Every structure is written in structure tokens, then in C-alpha cells.
Amino acid sequence: MEAAGTPHSSQCLALLGGTGHTGRLVLRNLLTSGNNQMELHVYVRSKEKLIALFPDILSDARVTIFKGNIQDDGLMQRCLSGVDTIICTLGENENIPGIRVMQDFARSALEALKSFKDNSSHWKPRRLILLSSATWNKRFADSRPAILHWMIRNTFAQSYEDLVKAQKLLKASPSLLSILLVQHNALVDEAASGCEVSTEFAYMAVSYEDLADGFVKLASDPMYTNIDAVGVSSRSAENGLRYFPFVFTKVLRGLMCQFIPGYCRAEYVIYQWLQTLKEKSKKS
């Protein structure tokens, strides 16, 4: 029996978003799993950034890198060819108007899978493990005060719209893939405290480290094969009060971006100005 967290030796995985904050940690865990027979297809927008993060990746025989635009159908077909499990960590934490990276992924992936199905006499739907949000799980969301739920939905209204539309597209094609939604609450940049995976709850926060551990566990443990949604949390978040200041600050900023015209642009200009001053002080 395989140890939990170690991908099956015969598994061919595709990881989309290998240089993102979550994706790079998932990739690190996969590369250090000790499985030398695993085949891994990694999609990135910047190969240079990937190599900077993983200097030895070009010499890893398990890895094939696919660089380009997520809307490139030919690239997506090559990336997903021969793959049985797709891990998608694409997405956006900021409330950017008009964002559609998840919808672009959904359309491109479905086109690729349809072409495989049309040319196969023994087609089996692929497994998609998709980064989602606890906000869109009714069981998890019902544990929040209604006003907090409204605030969070509006804080990330743009990125949520992209995610929800993408999920609707993907769920409409059960003959092409089966979906496991990885649903979390606030993402925090702190040390791992242990990953909690549950169909019953999602704590207030999860660290990037614990979220990455969750993805690898979900991709490798057969017990999650027929489950369509799980909450992933950090054990330290069982005490949600410790994360309240962080969550409140993030939600407040998001609401200002959503409802105060020009706020996000002004914040960006100020940030760039401060960065310029910082660079000048380093040179002087």
C-alpha cells in the first residue's frame, strides 16, 4: 500500500500554474516525492521563471515543460496528452476587473479533452483537481455570518465571477472529466501546521504550504476518487480568531477596490512610487 502523499508510480500528472504561489509548492512536493517513475507535465507562462525557481528541473527526466498562452489549443493538447490527472492551481487572488484566466483554461482544456475522446475507442474521463473557494460551497459558507459572507463575495467579485463561470463550463462536460474542487478560505503565507482535508468544514485559513500538501494528497489517495469537493485548511486555523485581523484587513481593502472608483489604481500608483524610492535608497 502506498504512503499517502506519494503519487502512484504509473501516474501521469499535468500541473497548470507551476510558478504561482500555490503551484510552485505543489511542484516542489511532487519533485521531492521520491517517485522516479512519475511523469509530470508542467504548464507555465514563463519558462525562465520556472527555471529560476527550480534550477535543476531541465535535467529531471520526469518533467516536460509546456510554455505559452493558456488559450493556445495546440499547446494545451500537447500538455494534456497521455495525462490521467490534471492539477490546476491557476487563478487570481486580487479583484482584477475582466479577469478570465479560469474561463480560458476551461475552454482550452475541454477542447483538448474532446479531441482525445473523439479519437479514442476506450475513453475514460480525466480527473481534474481544481483550485476553488469555500465561498462557493454552501455547507462551508453557511457557517459564516451572513454579512461576512456578503463582504467576502464582494471583496473578490471579479475573480469569483471568473471561477464560477469556469466551474460551470467544466461541470457541464462529465463525459470528458470528473472534478474535485479544492475549496479553501483565506490564504496565508506562513509555515505549515498540518493539512486538514474535509467534506464537512473549511477553517478560516490555510497556508500555501498546507494547501500544496493537500493537492498532492488528493492526487495520490484513492479515497478521494469519487468525491467532488473538499475543504482544505491548516490545523492552526481551528482557532479562527488568530486570523481575524488579516482577514478583516483583506476584506476591507477588497471592498474599497470594489466600491470606490479609482481606489485600486491609486493604490497601485502609490505602491510603484514607494518601490521606486526603495530602489533609489539602495543605490545611494
TrEMBL record:
The segment(s) forming the NAD(P)-binding domain are 17-222
Q: Which Pfam families match?
A: NAD_binding_10 (PF13460)
Residue runs in coiled coils: none
Family (UniProt): Belongs to the avfA family.
Protein's UniProt name:
NAD(P)-binding domain-containing protein
Q: Which organism is it from?
A: Penicillium cosmopolitanum
